[in-house]
What we know:
Distance between the termini: 49 Å
Helix content: 25-40%
Order of helices and strands: HEHEEHH
Number of helices: 4
Structural class: alpha+beta
Largest sheet: 3 strands, mixed
Radius of gyration: 20 Å
Strand order of the largest sheet: 1-2-3
Strand content: 15-25%
Number of domains: 1
Number of strands: 3
Amino acid sequence: QYSLIKDVVSSLKRHRMHEQQFTHHPLLVLSNFGLQQIHVKLMASMFQHMFPSINVHKVNLNSIKRCLLVSFDTETQLLHFRHYSVKVVPVGVSKGLKKLLQEKFPNMSRLEDISELL
């Protein structure tokens, strides 16, 4: 079973599709591939070698735009694919500063100075 991209986009309330998402490889997450069976190990190895490995100490978080989740169901022997869009947002800052960091310019006409926004 599968869904076409136009069906997925039409079902979303707010879709985030832009060309920059596909400039870098996705972050690969494998679930339930820890079994000792040879065909499960082979599938895990195949998925791992489809994408370059990520050095967690050197990776730039802004370059990770997508996440690919591959889950193996041991009972039905089926693979489930999920492809997510990832957005990095600042945490622990004021609402005004968050808008500035995300390059959204707030209405500052009612403010006398920038410190009121921050």
